[in-house]
Every structure is written in structure tokens, then in C-alpha cells.
Task: structure prediction
Amino acid sequence: MAEMDTSSGGGHKKGPGVKKPKKLSTRVDLTPMVDLGFLLLTFFVFTTTMSTPKGMAMNEPKDDPENQLKVKNSGAMTLLLGKDDHVFYYFGELLPETISQQFKSSTFKEIREVIATKAKNTPIGDLMYIIKANKDATFKNAIDILDEMTISNVPPGHYAEVDITPTEEMLIQKTEEANPGGK
Result:
């Protein structure tokens, strides 16, 4: 039980049996706070190094025509992205006399097989996919075709995004006009 001093008398008494009042320390021990700070610092340093952003390796065309990457016609496949998730493609160089046989239409569901077949039948040193998007293609289409490259195990450096040519734009437009809403 706690006792309470009810004796009267003011002032300080000196003598035997009189206890000095206990002085309380005003010092605060910050050791646990320092430990916590070091634990938090260690945690944040560890988690920031673990969450490094990952990017996709892509070939970008060079502005200098003399230093551009040379691609064999036998190993090249050009993928043209159109509207409504349509993909148009051709192999090698697009020649005016063989446009009707070369220029083909597909969808994202079917293009994976075409990409995989091209990768199987072409030596890896010659393989190159050229991706071009027209003005009606969506950003989603561009990401989807890059995903198809990853799914088909096409090594980075064997595909590149390039600007579409006016001839290819015209071919896409003519094909879409001839087959509205379909392939």
C-alpha cells in the first residue's frame, strides 16, 4: 500500500529518519530509437535494390542511313499494325510485282504461329522482325506485338520498331477498304 505523509510542519527537516526526496532523471535513453532507425535504413536500402525497374531491349533505327542495320531479305519479316487489332505482314522486301502474293492480313490470335514458324525456318543470325504501326493502331497493339515476340522466344535485338512508309499505309488502307470489318 502507498503511504501518504500527513505530518504538518513546513520547511525542510534535517536529521535522522528524514528521507531526501528522490530526484528524477530528465535524461531520455535514445538507444532503442537509434536501433529502430538503423533497422529502417537497412530495410529501405535492401528493398530499393531489390525493386530495380526492368525494361525491354529493343533496336531503334539509326538516323544515319549509312550506319543502319543491314537485314537479309530472306530473314526479314515486316509486321504492320492496323486498326481493330489487325496485323498485316510480308516477308523480305515488298516488291510491286508481287504485292498481292506477299502482303497478308492476320489477327493477334493468328500472328503468333506466323512469328514462330518464321523463327523456326530462319537461321538466328538472319532473323529480323520489323514492326511498323500506322496512325490507326493503338498503343495496346504495339505492346501486344512486343509480347508476342517475347512469347515466341524471339531474342532481343532481332526485332525493331520503324516508321511506316506511305506505300505500306496505302496497302493497309486498300486492304481495309476491300474487307471492312474482316480479314
Summary: Residues 87 and 110 are 9 Å apart (CA to CA). The chain has a mean pLDDT of 78.
